[in-house]
Design a protein that fits this description.
Elements: H1 3-14, E1 17-21, H2 27-35, E2 40-43, H3 46-55, E3 61-64, H4 73-76, E4 82-86, H5 89-101, E5 106-112, H6 125-138, E6 143-150, H7 158-179, E7 188-190, H8 197-202, E8 207-210, H9 212-215
Parallel strand pairs: 1-2, 1-8, 2-3, 3-4, 4-5, 5-6, 6-7
The structure holds pyridoxal-5'-phosphate.
């Protein structure tokens, strides 16, 4: 059994969705997984994503998991399945505008920042509630807020990772109760990567983003 099949089996039992993170890997590797039934793939660069999307089957659900610049939304708005990384009102508005131009509704997650590293984007936990209020007041008709995404600090300290995942899950719960209690679409907690997905699931993740464990080591210099 391949690593993919093992993970898929594990996640299936727990009803956790798998985003296969294919960034830096060629389309041949994506096709291999596609043939095994995987349909959801994650990318973090607009240019790389649009090239792959044009070469691969139409029924792939592409997720955008990296920092997204407003001026690049237009390149992915006709096909993107889920954007995990919305962390500004301006970006949400731009996605709404471009989705409207394509006559579609784009699903988004709000990225929350709990990790220590400054380099990570996202809304800080204390800003999340006012952010959601502001977003809801805009009544955007072409974006659907489906939940929260977060990343843990890159550390071998399992306890720290667990605490951060607890914080992400708690933020989801708070926002759900305050703003989306009648909205079944708000149901996703995207957290957990190759090194920490098991902890993430124990702490209430509903969607994990796994790259290297499935595809192998990434070479960014290629
Ligand atoms: C690259 C990436 C992943 C996958 O990381 P792995 O450690 O290879 O599983 C998950 N989420 C985001 C946002 C990423 O950029």
């Amino acid at each position: 059994m391949t690593e993919y099949e093992k993970i898929k089996g594990e996640l299936g039992k727990q009803q956790v969705d798998l985003v296969a993170v294919s960034k830096t890997f060629p389309t041949d590797r994506i096709k291999e997984l596609y043939q095994k039934g995987q349909r959801t793939f994650g990318e973090n660069k607009v240019q790389e994503l649009t090239v792959k999307q044009s070469q691969l089957p139409e029924d792939i659900k592409w997720h955008f998991i990296g920092h997204l610049q407003k001026n690049k939304v237009k390149y992915i708005s006709s096909f993107i399945g889920l954007i995990h990384s919305v962390d500004s009102i301006g970006l949400a508005k731009e996605i709404d505008k471009r989705a409207g131009q394509n006559n579609r509704i784009i699903d988004i997650l709000l990225q929350i920042k709990v990790a220590e590293e400054d380099s990570k984007y996202g809304i800080s936990p204390e800003d999340l509630d006012p952010f959601v209020k502001q977003l809801k007041d805009l009544s955007l008709t072409h974006v659907r807020v489906c939940g929260i995404m977060g990343m843990g600090t890159f550390t071998s300290d399992e306890k720290k990772t667990r605490e951060e995942f607890k914080e992400i899950r708690a933020a989801f719960q708070t926002i759900k109760s305050a703003h989306f209690s009648d909205d079944d679409a708000f149901s996703t907690v995207s957290m957990g990567m190759s090194g920490d997905y098991k902890i993430a699931i124990e702490e209430g993740s509903t969607m994990v983003r796994i790259g290297s464990l499935i595809f192998g080591h990434r070479n960014y210099n290629k």
